[in-house]
Amino acid sequence: MSRKRKILSVKNLDFSYNQNKVLDNISFSVEEGSFISILGPNGSGKSTLVNLISKVLRGYEGKIEVGGRDIEELDSKDIAKMVAVVPQYTNPGFSFTVAEMVMMGRHPYISRFGTEGKEDFDAVSGAMEKTEILPFSNRKFTELSGGEKQRVIMAQALAQDSSILLLDEPTSHLDINFQIEFMNLFLSLNKKENKTIIGIFHDVNLAIQNSKKIMLLKEGRIFNFGSGEDIINRESIKSVFGSDVFVGRNPVTKKLYVSPVFNPGVDRGISSQTANKYLRVHIIGGGGAASPVMNLLHSSGYTVSCGVINTLDTDLDTAQMLGIPYVTEAPFSPISFVSQNKNIEFIKSSDVIILPAVEFGSGNFSNLVSVKEAINSGKKVIVIDEKNIRERDHTGGKAEKLYRRIIEDGAIVVKSINQVLRHL
Question: Which residues are CB-neighbours of 419 under 8 A, at least 6 positions away?
C-alpha cells in the first residue's frame, strides 16, 4: 500500500495582531485526501490559521508549505490553484448573477487580459451541477436565501479546482437541513475526488461524525490533534471549551457524540462547595433513569455509585463517563445473584440510597428487593416518584406492592430530581 503524500505542512507557526500573540508555535502536517476539523472556542486562532494557510494574512513566523512548496514563494494565483476557501458568508458589493459569481472561481486560470474558455465554462457548469444551483444560474446573488448563497460560494470554490478546501464555519448560520446537505457534499468530494478538506466547524458533533482527524485549538496552541476516538472525551472538551459534557455514542451510527451536561430548573439547594464530600450515595439504575441523578450528585461533589445496570444501558455510559463505580449485568439478562450481592455491598457501604423512576420487570426486580433490604437495615432511602409506579410495573403488581412497602417503611418521597439535594 503506497503512502499518501503530505499536501500541507505547518512548522513552528507564530502570528500576532498588534503584539497580541494569536498563534503560538503551531506545527502539524496533513496527508492528501484527509478530512480534518478544527475545533476550539472563539478567539482560539481557528480563522487566523485558515487565513494564513490561504495567504490572506501575512507577517507570520514559521513555515507553511502546500504541495511541498513554501507559500511565500507562490503568488496569489498559484495559491488559489492549490487552496480554495469557503467562508461563512460573502458580500460581493455588486449585483452579480449566480453564474458570474461562480466564474470568479476561475480567476487563477484566466490571464489578465484573457477571456473565459471552454475549460472555464465546463468547470463552472460542473460546480453548479454539484451544488444544485444550475436552475437559478441567471438570478442575482443578492436575491437568494442564505442557504442558496452558501451553495453559490461553495460552487465558486469548486470551480477553482483546488486540491485543498478550507472551510471557515461554512454551515454555522444555516438550518440543519442545509448543514447536512453541505456535509454530505464535503464528504462526497473527499471520498470520490480525493479533495483534502480542512474545516472549522461550530458544531462539535457535525465535525466528529464526519472527520478523519480533529484538531483542538486552545489559546492559539494545539491542545490535541488526532482521531476523534483518541482525543474527544469529557476531559478534553472541558479543558478546551470550559463546558461539562457527556461523550457517548450515537445509537444509530455508533460514532461519538457530545451533549451538554446540565439540569435546567434544578434548585440545587446547596452548592458543590457545601456538599458533604464524604457522604456516599448509591443510586439504583436502569433504562437511563439514574443518569440525571448521577450527573446532579457527581457535579455537586458527592461520592456516588450505581447498580445494577445492564451493559448497553445509557446509565452505564453515564457512569463510565463520570468515572462512577457501578455494578453491571450482561445485556438483556436478569440480575444474577453475583451482581445482586455486589449491589448490596455498595448499599451497605453507602449512607443514602436513591431510587429513581426505574421501570421494573422480572429481570431487575431484585434491585427493588435490595432497596427494601436497605431500608430494613436502617439506611436512608430517597424515592424519586416522578412517574406512577403502576405505569412502571411490568411484574403484574409485584413491584408495586414492594414499592409501596418501601415507602410505608420510611423512605423519603420526592416528586422530582430538583428536590433530591434538599434531603442529603
Answer: 267
Residue 225 corresponds to which cell in the numbers above? 490533534
**CA-CA distance, 299 to 312, in Å (whole number)?**
23
Question: Strands 61-66 and 6-17: what pairing?
Answer: antiparallel
Was domain 280-423 assigned CATH 3.40.50.450? yes
pTM, 2 dp: 0.69
Identical fold between 6-260 and 280-423: yes
pLDDT digits (tens, 9 = 90+) for 71-95: 999 998 999 999 999 987 677 767 8
Cα 169 to Cα 351: distance, rounded to the nearest angstrom: 49
Q: Check whether the bond before 308 is cis (ω within 30° of 0).
A: yes
**Of 21 and 170, which is predicted with more confidence?**
21
Q: Where are the alpha helices (DSSP H) in 281-364?
A: 291-299, 314-322, 337-348
Read off the C-alpha cell for 82: 492549490
CATH fold of 6-260, please? Rossmann fold (3.40.50)
Rounded distance between C-alpha atoms, residue 298 and residue 74, angstroms: 55
Say whether pLDDT at 43 is over 90.
Answer: no
Query: Could you tell me the residue ranges of all domains in the chain?
Result: 6-260, 280-423
How many Cβ atoms sit within 10 Å of the Cβ of residue 36? Answer: 19
Q: Please state the rounded mean pLDDT for residues 64-74.
A: 94
- Distance between terminal CA atoms of the chain? 61
Q: Tell me: the pLDDT tens digits for 238-277?
A: 899 887 787 877 766 778 888 776 554 455 454 445 566 6
Count the neighbouring beta carbons within 10 Å of the beta carbon of residue 321. Answer: 19
Position of cell 463510565? 320
Instruction: Find the mean pLDDT for residues 200-220.
Output: 90
Strands 245-249 and 221-226: unpaired
